[in-house]
From TrEMBL, chains A, B:
Pathway: Purine metabolism; IMP biosynthesis via de novo pathway; 5-amino-1-(5-phospho-D-ribosyl)imidazole from N(2)-formyl-N(1)-(5-phospho-D-ribosyl)glycinamide: step 1/2. It is found in: Cytoplasm. This is Phosphoribosylformylglycinamidine synthase subunit PurS. It comes from Umezakia ovalisporum FSS-62. Belongs to the PurS family. GO terms for biological process: 'de novo' IMP biosynthetic process.
């Protein structure tokens, strides 16, 4: 039986990698008066529906998908949560 | 007393807004042979440290920050989790 899973994927820069966009946001926030914000890091959040016969297969597919397309493993880490869904609605 | 909070912020396109980047990723995945993936939606995931005397004030600041800088409220939704942290480490 085919099951549908909602995958919530987080792609984040590795801690050792500089994040110029995060620095720009922090600097913009300081100009707006928010001096209480620091260490801004900007990553990606991806949701998708994946169909598979078993959760373990969906996880294997997702790891390959993240390595090949969603993340750059040289500078980024990723992690994901899988939630089985009945219908195709519910994304975002 | 000043408290530090780690904010995990999710910025996602409103469901009614087209996501060309998500469509491109889905099409790329199909070319790689992943025909079991659909409804790809790409959003932003932001982490930052915010300092405040109370959690309620940190939340109010974050809502303003999301409205003014991190999200475009016309086309995007946002939500965030706040976690009190002892030290400044632990971002990402």
């Amino acid at each position: 039986m085919q099951r549908k899973y909602l995958a919530k994927i987080f792609v984040t820069l590795r801690p050792s990698v500089l994040d110029p966009a995060g620095v720009a946001v922090q600097s913009g926030l300081q100009q707006l008066g928010y001096n209480n914000v620091e260490q801004v890091r900007i990553g990606k959040y991806i949701e998708l529906i994946i169909t598979s016969t078993e959760e373990i297969k969906a996880r294997q597919d997702l790891e390959r998908i993240c390595d090949q397309m969603l993340a750059n493993p040289v500078i980024e880490n990723y992690r994901f949560d899988l939630i089985e869904v009945e219908t195709q609605t519910g994304v975002f």
